[in-house]
From TrEMBL:
This is Inactive tyrosine-protein kinase 7-like isoform X1. Residues 742-802 are annotated as: Disordered. The gene is LOC117211534. Residues 1-19 form the signal peptide. Gene3D superfamilies: Immunoglobulins, Phosphorylase Kinase, domain 1, Transferase(Phosphotransferase) domain 1. The active site is at 953 (proton acceptor). ATP binds at residues 819-826, 844, 891-897, 957. Residues 16-105, 108-205, 214-298, 312-399, 402-497, 506-586, 591-678 form the Ig-like domain. The chain crosses the membrane at residues 704-725. Keywords: ATP-binding, Disulfide bond, Glycoprotein, Immunoglobulin domain, Magnesium, Membrane, Metal-binding, Nucleotide-binding, Receptor, Signal, Transmembrane, Transmembrane helix.
């Protein structure tokens, strides 16, 4: 009895959490984390049931203060940069039911933050540097703060300190026993823990003066110099015979055009450049002794601020804050030496102070209470040091709440009809205010692609248009209007009722029924109400014969007769009306043997034999013979299939013995009979005249004849190969001369007959096409067809396939040149059809249609892009063939090709290959952004691989990038301008040498694995800002290194270790050791996820 009461009591305690008060519980609770200071972390929180739940966070019992570093993502708390002071506390997630206001709190979670401070060297014994004596004891201490256990490393003059009987290292202390003058130098220490290594600090100069050695009087110091300006390193010794400077392992330095060594020991570098960076050692020599002090010279630099410098990230560099609300935007300090100073300027160009309604604290812009017309405008973040300054602006927009004007109205439509739902509001223009449609409380999803529905917002009039209503569209619709800084407002609900139309499901198809068989021919339909279905036969009574029954729309034939042949119509009807569909039913007679071959059949070597076989049926069956169950192996002139179906062998060989099959087939089915043919040796028969007589004479004759035949075939093959090689050599020479002539005339006009882009019946083209197919059949690896084989298959399609993507030249606006490829010019322009919105496109022209190779490659690009549909692959929009030249219209982006973007983002920002003038500066990509672009590119290339296609030219120049940092794989292939330096002519082919593996260059073996190799090169380009791979090597050197398999790719140091490992796998010499694109996408996806945690 007591146990029952205890159980009841326990249930009473559980009721508040799982009962009527919201029934909330945590399915995911925040857990403990251990991260290094400055790293991102994500505290997860999710409550069930998930609907109508809002989340908030507390730290040490207090509501979490707003910060650009910390923001909520659903129920999760994301901290972009952990701070050991501000984030040291107990984090608690609070989940509240919006209707009942019932809330629950999670268990507290702490973040174990690993950190380390700068390390400096302090003199512990003796207390003062002046008290250091020869033979005395010296103790140095590494002063550093941090978390957890630390490991220490000691350096003297930048070289590791070596332990000895005089030198003792105990953790953070360095003991020097019985000091000697040679112990003098610059001492530094390095501390390491789980957070990493301590930042570099200035070294400590240890001076041990001796009577027989030089004594330092002016100690050199580490120096940061501005590029292009003089740099002075001071050093002075007392009692020194000479003072000498060494740079790394070079020296002693003397006065020359770049450096001057003054009499007082000072080293002057007239114009400091990057090549001058490094360690400089000052040596004071006296007699045989030398005292050395080493310092570091560095060139000041400052990386550019970019959109990624803002925290939180600002889409299009726009920060939206509601009126009378607070805005906080941090500007992250860019990388620089020395550490740059960061400050903000207001829209009027004045530096913002650390007090007032608009102020700056810790590089964070704070607008305490946004005022319309006063606090909006462009605010600039500026970073500067001795290398210069960089800035970036953020537009602050102050928003006001929207007002709903009208709600959508309920509609009832027929399946397949178009639907338009409208709501209107008064508010700010997008992107400050945006609208989305909800169906049954969930955002409308683009099921079936963008043609299923379209949303437009024209000055506050928002329309949801369904091109063709489906039964699944039935539901409750409302529009949600959201302005940043204010809660969403919702329209009233409008119900959409879709009435199912009368239709066949599926539509009946023509049938062939075997005579005498039992068969069924179904006809099914559906509609708003259950339809009635019946069959009628054209030219016959309404009543079917007794052996035919119409049961609920299905025709049952109980023994098919010849007179059942004809046209049958299925009629479905209900209150909505009636529909009908007519099919043809044919009656066939399955093959039946009238004469079967005699089994077994005996034959004598050298004599003829007849294998009889005849069959009847309707339609008349065809008869085919095979031997040992292998088709098409009876094509020797000795074998003949007669008109009646019998197989006649004119002269029987002993090798003809075996099992022969006779197969009779028509549309009614197949029948087969087999016969064993036994061959006996003839006493007087010889395959050829043989002078020797013996038991083994016949077999010996056959052996001799086979040997002679093989030798003759070998000679024919050798002669044929010689002729073929001579023909190919002559053709390559002609092609080379033609290309040289084209290059000489590239600035003139070449008039020649243009041909239409279509399949030609010319025998030469067909012959070459067959050769290309034979060549391309070898270009397969890892189970993937090459793009050439796809092209050869696609080239057999009819002309109508190109008509399906036909586009009018009048829809193109002014053409702007981008470059020139193997086919012709490449342009960018705008494309518009029937008043639709203009879209940015790329146009590839086909100038020389007489060039068979160019024509085939143009078709390959068409067929490749025509069958692809992926967000990271450009779409084929159309093909203009109204007049010459032919135009291929492809999707393009607002930022153009990735190569130009990377070049424009460089610090020096040299002129790009396509523009003489200096292009505008593009934002530099962060590591996280490069990972995102790499992930997108890998997904696009995985789609190519899944479609059994090979790209063959993956590089930054053949990728497009948009302003929203999305990437698309493309095929501009501008091999002549502006990227001619990135292509090489090898074996009469123009190839992207520096992006290809050994098997593609030397074996013409292109596959998805060669694309994986090129993809890793693309990632390398993104990290190196569009630099040409192996820029210091000419093409011949690259070819030689590739052939010797000594071409060494090195991932960028800034790439995450996991990505560096993946790139190394992609560059493996053996294609089998490279990962597939499935594996690449998976691994990069993990790296991307990890970088966000």
């Amino acid at each position: 009895m007591w146990r029952l009461d205890a159980t009841t009591l326990l249930l009473c305690f559980l009721v508040p959490v799982f009962g009527q008060d919201g029934s909330l519980y945590f399915s995911v609770s925040p857990g403990e984390h251990s991260v290094a200071e400055g790293s991102p972390v994500r505290l997860r929180c999710e409550a069930q049931p998930s609907s109508l739940v809002k989340y908030s966070w507390k730290i040490d019992g207090q509501p979490l203060a707003p910060s650009p570093r910390r923001h909520q993502d659903g129920g999760d708390l994301r901290i972009t940069r952990v701070n050991r002071i501000l984030d040291s506390g107990n984090f608690v997630c609070v989940a509240t039911h919006e209707e009942t206001e019932y809330s629950i709190e999670s268990s507290p979670a702490k973040i174990d933050i690993q950190w380390i401070s700068e390390a400096s060297v302090q003199l512990q014994q003796p207390k003062l540097p002046s008290a250091i004596r020869v033979g005395g004891e010296i103790e140095l201490r590494c002063h550093v703060d941090g978390s957890g256990d630390m490991k220490y490393e000691w350096y003297r003059n930048r070289e590791p300190v070596v332990r000895s009987d005089r030198i003792e290292i105990k953790k953070k202390k360095l003991h020097v026993h019985r000091a000697v003058p040679e112990d003098s130098g610059m001492y530094s220490c390095l501390a390491k823990n789980e957070a990493g290594a301590s930042p570099k600090m200035e070294s400590f100069p240890l001076i041990v003066s001796g009577n027989d050695t030089a004594t330092i009087k002016v100690v050199p110091r580490d120096l940061i110099a501005k590029r292009g300006e003089p740099a002075m390193l001071h050093c002075a010794f007392e009692d020194a015979d000479s003072v000498q400077w060494f740079f790394k392992d070079i020296g002693p330095l003397e006065t020359d055009d770049e450096r001057t060594v003054l009499e007082n020991g000072t080293l002057v570098i007239r114009s400091a450049e990057h090549r001058d960076q490094g360690f400089y050692s000052c040596h004071g020599d006296r007699g045989d002794s030398s005292i050395t002090y080493t310092v570091d010279l560095q060139i000041a630099y400052l990386m550019n601020l970019s959109a990624a410098s803002f925290e939180p990230l600002l889409p299009n560099q726009v920060a939206v804050v509601g009126e009378d609300q607070e805005l906080q935007v941090s500007c992250l300090e860019p990388s620089g030496l020395p550490s740059p100073k960061v400050y903000w300027k207001d829209p009027k160009g004045h530096i913002i102070s650390d007090s007032g309604p608009v102020r700056v604290q810790d590089n964070t812009l704070i607008v305490a209470k946004a005022r319309m017309g006063e606090d909006d405008g462009n605010y600039s973040c500026v970073a500067e040091n001795m290398a210069g300054e960089t800035d970036i602006f953020a537009q602050v927009v102050i928003s006001t709440p929207p007002t709903l004007i009208s709600s959508p109205e309920s509609l009832s439509v027929m399946e397949g009809d178009s639907v338009t739902l409208t709501c209107s509001y008064f508010g700010m223009e997008p992107p400050v205010t945006h609208v989305r449609w909800l169906k049954d409380g969930e955002p409308v999803k683009e099921s079936g692609g963008p043609t299923r529905h379209r949303v437009t917002d024209h000055h506050g009039n928002v329309t949801l248009h369904l091109k063709s209503a489906d039964l699944s569209d039935k539901g409750s619709y409302m529009c949600e209007i959201f302005t940043k800084g204010f809660p969403s407002i919702f329209s009233e609900r409008a119900s959409l009722t879709v009435e199912e139309k009368l239709k066949f499901s599926p539509q009946p198809v023509d049938k062939r029924l075997e005579l005498g068989s039992t068969a069924k021919v179904p006809c099914k339909s559906q509609g708003a109400t259950n339809p009635t279905v019946k069959w009628i036969k054209e030219g016959a009574d309404e009543e079917f014969p007794k052996h035919v029954q119409d049961i609920n729309g299905t025709l049952h034939f109980n023994g098919v007769l010849e007179e059942d042949k004809g046209r049958y119509t299925c009629i479905a009807s209900n209150a909505q009306g009636s529909i009908n569909h007519t099919i043809s039913i044919d009656v066939v007679i399955a093959p039946k043997f009238t004469i079967q071959p005699q089994n077994p059949t005996e034959a004598i070597e050298g004599y003829p034999v007849m294998l009889h076989c005849a069959a009847e049926g309707d339609p008349k069956p065809t008869i085919q013979w095979d031997r040992d169950s292998r088709m098409n192996n009876l094509n020797n002139s000795r074998f003949e299939v007669l008109g009646n179906g019998s197989l006649y062998i004119k002269e029987v060989y002993m090798s003809d013995e075996g099992k022969y099959g006779c197969t009779a087939g028509n549309s009614g089915g197949l029948k087969r009979e087999e016969v064993q043919l036994n061959v006996k040796a003839g006493d007087t028969y010889r395959f050829d005249v043989d002078l020797e007589v013996g038991d083994d004479g016949s077999m010996m004759t056959k052996t001799v004849m086979i040997t002679l035949s093989a030798a003759a075939a070998y000679m024919v093959l050798v002669v044929g190969l010689m002729l073929y090689c001579r023909y190919r050599r002559r053709r390559r020479k002609q092609q080379y001369l033609q290309e040289q002539a084209e290059e000489k005339l590239e600035n003139g006009e070449v008039q020649e007959e243009q041909t239409e882009l279509k399949e030609t019946s010319n025998s030469k083209v067909n012959s070459t096409g067959r050769k290309k197919e034979n060549r391309d059949s070898h270009n397969k690896s890892d189970g993937a067809d090459t793009a050439q084989s796809q092209s050869s298959n696609q080239s057999k399609k009819s002309k109508s396939n190109y008509d399906k993507i036909a586009a009018s030249r009048t829809n193109l606006k002014e053409l702007k040149p981008l470059g020139r490829g193997e086919f012709g010019e490449v342009y960018s322009t705008k494309y518009q059809v029937d008043g639709d919105k203009e879209t940015l496109v790329m146009v590839k022209s086909l100038i020389n249609t007489k060039d068979e190779t160019a024509l085939q490659e143009f078709k390959r690009h068409l067929d490749l892009l025509h069958k692809l549909n992926h967000e990271n692959v450009v779409k084929l929009i159309g093909l203009c063939r109204e007049e010459e030249p032919d135009y291929m219209i492809l999707e393009y982006t607002d930022w153009g090709d990735l190569k130009q973007f990377l070049i424009a983002s460089r610090k020096d920002n040299n002129s790009s290959p396509t523009h003489e003038s200096k292009p505008p500066r593009a934002p530099q990509l962060s590591v996280a952004q490069i990972l995102s672009l790499s992930n997108q590119a890998a997904k696009g290339l995985k789609h190519l691989a899944d479609s059994r296609l090979v790209h063959k030219d993956i590089a930054a120049r053949n990728c497009l990038i948009a302003s929203n940092l999305t990437i698309k794989i493309s095929l501009p292939c501008m091999t002549k301008e502006p990227y001619q330096q990135e292509y090489t002519k090898h074996r009469n082919q123009v190839i992207p040498l520096r992006w290809l593996p050994y098997e593609a260059v030397y074996e013409d073996e292109y596959s998805t694995k060669s694309d994986v190799y090129s993809f890793s090169c693309l990632v390398w380009e993104m990290f190196h800002q569009g630099e040409l791979p192996f820029i210091k090597m000419n093409d011949e050197s690259v070819l030689a290194a590739l052939k010797a398999q000594t071409l060494a790719w090195k991932p960028h140091k800034a790439a995450p270790p996991a990505l560096q490992e993946l790139q190394a796998q992609c560059w493996a010499n053996d294609p089998r050791e490279r990962p597939t694109f499935d594996e690449v996408v998976s691994k990069i996806g993990e790296i991307v996820v990890d970088s966000c945690l």
